[in-house]
Amino acid sequence: MFKAVINAETLGDAIEAASSLVDEVKFSVSEMGLELKAADAANVAMVSLKVGSEAFENFKATPSEIGVDLVRLSDILSMATKGENIQLELDEESHKLKIDVGSLSYTMSLIDPTAMRKEPEIPKLDLPAHVTLPGGELRRAVKAAEKVSDHVIFGVSDEGFYMEAKGDIDSLMLKIPSTELLGMKPGKARSLFSLDYLKNMSKAIGKSNEVTLELGIDYPLMVNFKLGQSLEVSYLLAPRMEQE
Question: What pLDDT, in 10s, does the model give residues 68-92?
Answer without folding.
Answer: 999 999 999 999 998 999 999 999 8
